[in-house]
């Protein structure tokens, strides 16, 4: 059977054009969003961070380049390429990107091309065949077959489309888009953390190496001092108290070596892990002086608190809040009827060679409406669930903003206090160096003894150890400021991406 328009067969292309025009009109004019319009729940904050000191310097977009260490820059580049945690974060972004594409696809009609061969073999005395057979099988009439064997070939192009009057599909798409953006922000947070941990580990290795060298120098001084006191003790020129005190200091200094070596090995292993390796050859790291000079530079004064809007964890929290808001609209849209369109057009024949004939065309079109009548409160409960999720994320977003502000303030205060401490330790080292010089002059002039000179040298070594640890702590504090501000304190104007990831 085929349908006709008057005396002429309806051409397939004409029906397809009508369908396409109708669908285009529906897609252009259908629907509205059911998501509520809500205020930004961010708490009020001061306009500026009070702890920032005055300076004219600006941070660089690749802020770790400010340390002026080419080896560190190469190390960070290698970690960005090889780090396994970052690979996981990138894969997560890819996953959410494609989940958004899945959600977006429901906005458009689904079109399927099908080719089928159907073969049916049934007895003729069942169903409508049995009723016809009772009327056909009369004496002298035609013989009705005992079985029906039917083979049908068909090729068709079908479509299905849900008209999104209430914004359910668009809300699902926008929620998926915000989740994708939030995952991108999570990836940037992971990246910032990995870069910061790499730099901190780099400075820790350099500090441990230098401390190990200073410890060995201290052991050498104590060994020489213990030997002098041992000789004096044997000659009765030193008391047993002085002799045993010198040996105790020597053994205590040697006891520090295994701990320092273990800490150095752990730091090197951490750096290898950041690089996605089990173990790597590690030469002595020599941090250039300008790296520590950058760590001691002042932070620009009057940093605006709006910088927190660029911080990746704050951005991610807000984007997840927006996704929750869109899901409220999706839950609301379930209260209203849904409209769907389906259709197909093609050709069919019992002979395969005739399937290309236009006279064998067929088409069908259907529309449907489904409205909820009774679901035992399921829709209302889903709306309340969506609201509760939004309220949770709103509170979490507010907490994230407050914690971020406090994190910046605390890191700035900590950085400033460590700079004060470093200044005192630098002055102490200068005094220790002057003391060594004075004791050396006294020894050569015969007004001082050699033990006094050794004690002065040991005091200088201990002050250099404290200064080495202070420089590392200051570099870590500088990193903490960068990390709390999201990496840099320059506001960069970047083009806004379109909706499509």
Please, what is the average pLDDT? Answer: 82
- Say how many strands there are: 6
Largest sheet: 4 strands, antiparallel
CATH class of the largest domain: Mainly Alpha
Task: Summarize the topology.
Blueprint: E1 4-5, E2 8-9, H1 12-29, H2 70-82, H3 84-105, E3 110-123, H4 127-136, E4 147-163, H5 168-234, H6 240-274, H7 289-295, H8 312-333, E5 338-349, E6 361-370, H9 378-445, H10 450-484
How would you portray this structure in words?
The chain has 501 residues and is of the alpha+beta class. The protein folds into two domains: 89 residues, Outer membrane efflux proteins (OEP) (Single Sheet); 346 residues, Up-down Bundle (Outer membrane efflux proteins (OEP)). The chain is 59% helix and 11% strand. It is built from ten helices and six strands; from the N terminus they run ββαααβαβααααββαα. The protein has a four-stranded antiparallel β-sheet with strand order 3-4-5-6, with helices on one face. A hairpin with a 2-residue loop joins strand 1 and strand 2.
